[in-house]
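WARN  no MSA supplied for this record, continuing single-sequence
INFO  ligand: zinc ion
INFO  echoing inputs
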Amino acid sequence: MKTLKIAIQKSGRLNEKSVELLKNCGLSFDNYKSSLISPVSNFPLEILFLRDDDIPEYVQDGIADLGIVGENVISETGADVAYLQRLGFGKCSLKIAIPHTSTIRSIGDLNGKAIATSYPVILKRFLDEHKLKADIRTISGSVEISPGLGMSDAICDLVSTGGTLKSNGLQSFTDVMASEAVLIGRKGDEDNLLISELIQRVQSVLRARE
Ligand code: PRT
Ligand code: ZN
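INFO  complex generated
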């Protein structure tokens, strides 16, 4: 049978938990060092180590058969993939936050304001749903400092503990989407026996954690 490929984050918040989950599934492989592909010695599988932003498209395009990535990234890229299993780690929520000193009180007050984010697609969808027009300022990181620099009136960014908002004088205003790491696959691969076997192993690891 054809060797499968699973794409996981190379380094970052999801890497360690993704590697741990696969090891707990009984898969034996070397963790990413310099090689971007690690063969699994006891299952017909290769691990691809990628930037998380690339994972949904790799799976959609069939370069990888499976992937582990945050729901936020799947939504932002708009990739058409099958959600196979929620994984219970990497939990966070994409929120709009405003400075403590802001005069913004209701959702409608966001109209005409500048909002900095690394998630312009999801934010635009949220604004459209609320029939709002705002100036979306797309930046790739350190979004939380932009209101203090006078670049924006609000931000839309991921929050887990809330510590980063707090230390930048911001407060949560409204939730845009909740997210966690999920196992994704390609649509139409439902009959692949190796994929089914892997999903079953993942599910039994998750059940054992309950
Ligand atoms: O290099 P690569 O592109 O692969 O990684 P990355 O830098 O884009 O992503 P990374 O490793 O930061 O996050 C990977 C995934 O982890 C995200 O896509 C989310 O699905 C998930 N995740 C969970 C988070 C957080 N929690 C989180 N708190 N991703 C980012 N953050 C950031 C947030 O952007 C903010 O700057 O942490 C800060 C806030 O954290 P708190 O705890 O202060 O609220
Ligand atoms: Zn990324």
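The first helix runs from residue 15 to 24.
INFO  checksum written, moving to next record
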